[in-house]
């Protein structure tokens, strides 16, 4: 077991109607003015916006708004938010939405407290030293951004999808009310399920040290995601399934699963980021395409863990059957599983590999993932 | 799934040699003077004391000492610590030891900031509103006290073993170096294993709502404890087994496993506390006696979860076999499983039941656990 530091100071408020207390939570934290960040406006249609504003007003919390954050969130919108926050004496960022909104909020929170270009953090040119506090109300569970210090943003100029990580941008309080997720489309539920499974299996398969305890935690999350996704596809209003899915998703990338592991990395995310960056593919959809291809290429390097996966998740002793069953499950829940399924043709593979190799360099993974290797994996997709 | 708040701001520093940085961690937290709390002095024999002092001195951290904390820690020692801390401008408590030392440190930390009698917190006469920061270096893993806000103390006057719980007494930083635990006796390892399993199964069996995800987390911890205990009984120096045991123990009572459950309670702890309080039985030993008896009495009330337990932990479909196998396992690792094994005779059962019923009242469990019911359970032991 490898040495580690585990520190996750985010407070989770989980359950029905918790969003009505957002104003109280902000007040208890001595916040008097927030930048309210959200997406395309669905929160205005479903009444969530109204609830949030009511709670803010009741607690005399002033606010400015930044709307229009898109999935695969872009840097230009982040710049807009930083400008708004700087000009309006904003004391905290309140994100209402899914991972894209929260990641944008985190980047704004760090950018406000930095004199240079916030993109510096993404290309390892500068380190986050300060950030505004962040509060979230989640409307989609997948990225665990509500309980970690990670943010992923696409630079719309350079077409780079890069990430930052710092405990300084862990949300102070995150509200997870599974009821707010009941309207998530079946398509996005499937993508979310794939994303959570991806978070779990990246380190599970790639770490050179992976304690049994961690394998069991990861398998607990995957089993829960599979079980609850199948329930939710039949009955989107099953509160308990939605709640278990949400909490398992949070545990999937809040820092717990990789504790004590060594050398784990995120090759599927690395390659997928190029799909999102170049072709605006939904993150979970891209992962569903990359994962089976990567697994087929990688399995020989950690055969015992692939056998374990097949056994624990699909009750089968053959590692190839484990991969096949996961691929079939992605297909069954409606996720794409080939590049063809997402309308990417063979001739575009070259550009994808180039872009992913750049990410490999930034993430320090280029010694394993040369352009040729990435091409080989993409060929299998 | 029930609503919940999850907040655990304790930072864990896990791994070899981390204790050498305790001075640096304190310095980073702006602490200039600590009260060093420890037990019977084994840390002086094995060199840990020397390492801690060296680290403190290197960072110009002054300290006072409180030694002699016993397992089943007593209130009189806590009073002594509070007095020492108040008279010496102590800014933090540094606990070096196992759960008893940490629980004493937490109680001192709360007591220093309270004008009344610290026992008020234990009998629900007052609430903890402030506490000194707490730092720990663990030498035994079992109670998860290193990552929660719980403390259990015996009032040596009244023979009450009661507890407090507040996030204000969560340690700021806890150091877990599994190497420091290599000298734990086989007896205490067994007791620790029982204690961790007890933490896991209390809510697992008693909650009226218990999501599958939580059951899987609990089962992950129990499987890990069983696996690693068996390795450690053969080879106490197996670092990885010691490390997995330690981290599983921490997860067993850091607030994660009961998230989203409803109405779970701690009857085995409740009854065991009377064994410790009246007969100074080691906590884990007492639990090993109480648990099988309680399970036999309770199983009808939650038969599906007892069947699940038998299946998941012992791969058997019969709930009675699950209980029997756990009892046998306690026996196999050297824990007592009857009152007779710990030299408590039938005529003492009455006094035990009286004492436990008093705890039931303080814990709000007296509607289920009448004196007659407690007697019935003790009869099975």
TrEMBL record, chains A, B:
Keywords, sorted A to Z: Oxidoreductase
Domain Alcohol dehydrogenase iron-type/glycerol dehydrogenase GldA: 9-178
SUPFAM superfamilies named among the record's database cross-references: Dehydroquinate synthase-like
Residue ranges of every copy of the Fe-containing alcohol dehydrogenase-like C-terminal domain listed in the record: 190-381
Gene3D superfamilies: 3.40.50.1970, Dehydroquinate synthase-like - alpha domain (1.20.1090.10)
Coiled coil: none
One Pfam family matching this protein: ADH_Fe_C
Any GO molecular function: butanol dehydrogenase (NAD+) activity
Gene Ontology CC entries for this record: cytosol
Protein family (similarity comment): Belongs to the iron-containing alcohol dehydrogenase family.
PANTHER family for the chain: ALCOHOL DEHYDROGENASE YQHD
Protein name per the record: NADH-dependent alcohol dehydrogenase
